[in-house]
Amino acid sequence: MVVLLAVVLFINYIDRGALATAGPLIQRDLHLTNGQYGLLFSAFFWVYAIIQIPVGALAERYGAHRVLTVGLVVWATATALTGITSGFSMLIMLRMMLGLGESVGFPTVSKLLAAVVPVKGLGMANGIVAFGYLIGPGVGVFLAGLLIDSVGWRGTFLVFGACSLLWLIPWLMVRLPKLATQRADPSTPTLRMVLAQRGLWGTSLGLFSSNYMWYFILSWLPGYLVKERGFSMHHMENVATAGYLVNGLSAFIIGWGVDRYIARGGSANFGYKLIMLIAHVGSIPAMLCMGLGTESMAVAGMFGFQIMMGASSPGMYAMSQILAGPKASGRWVGIQNSIGNFPGMISPWLTGIIVDRTGHFALAFVAAAAMSAVGIVGWIGIVPKLAPIQWGTPRGVKPPVDQAADLI
After folding, report:
1. pLDDT tens digits, 39-70
2. Cα–Cα distance between 26 and 37 in angstroms, integer?
3. How many domains does one find in the chain?
4. Whole domain around residue 210: which residue ranges?
5. 121 within a domain of the structure (yes/no)
6. What is the pLDDT of residues 354-370, one digit of tens each?
7. Has residue 146 been placed in a domain?
8. 254 in any annotated domain
9. CATH at residue 367
10. Cα R_g (the chain), whole angstroms
11. What CA dihedral angle connects 256, 262, 266 and 268, to 10 degrees?
12. CA-CA distances (angstroms) from residue 16 to 53, 295, 338, 379, 392?
């Protein structure tokens, strides 16, 4: 199950990142400004961010495995239709449709992981899943580069969309544990109960900070390397692919390392929070090197950021899964991802405006460095000690007989 979930988020990020690789060609063919190009990335998040909350509730109510299946069909269709788009307006609508489909990813995956994987294995499980979605953009850049040369950017989207549907074959055959397919019952924590948790707001602010940097890089790295640093398309593809691969490997190694630390008696609270602190502090000089340094410093900064981003990835969801537990992880991560993905509406569009007005990316990287510092407040300052929350019985629901006896 963990491998299939890693693969589906791998596909998720290949499909959403294809636009960045084909961006220079799409801009040329459809005569888009940098502002319009940035708006395409933001349009995805208009739907993706807002719909996360109801998606998390649907995953709790009807089963995360079902919601994930429907979402993949929607986003694969949107990806394929992008290949026949005729203009900016149609492209905007398809990016919103893609956001609708892909919004199911993290709430459903977190619900399934929390239901099956014990706390001492969540680091590795989330590391494997993170490896999938973190290398997805890199593999997408590489594959899209090859396909664009042979079938053009339109054919590339058609191929990506059709191939995404192949994931359904093993997924519909797998037999999931009963706990992973269980629907909501009267003991399921309510939305109000989840919203009352301080930890929810800490993980949401931390993800907001992380995603500002991540979506900035995901959306603009190809354009930055080509326009600002003078890389050729093929050189850009090689460097970007290597960076995303380093990102994924970092997540895998750190996830394994945290689990080993916990298995030897270490504290999950200390292990995950220390990694988050190092990752956000380390991202600040990496961003500044990319924006203000020489070409060599910029490349080093890019790889440094990918290492830091990968290191923090397992904890982004493992911390929430530990706190929320299997009963509330879908709804918790839905809310967290809704708040945490608002930077997707801001970062790509704001970067396009900055580049249009200044002609350079330097100020955009300075803004990303400042946002990295905000993440420290969320992950370290607001998130309480990591331990499963003891959810009370929702109002209006009588406790089971044995629980009532204990209360008496």
Report:
1. 887 788 888 888 988 988 888 888 888 999 99
2. 9
3. 1
4. 2-174+193-388
5. yes
6. 888 888 899 999 999 99
7. yes
8. yes
9. 1.20.1250.20
10. 21
11. 90
12. 20, 28, 17, 27, 39
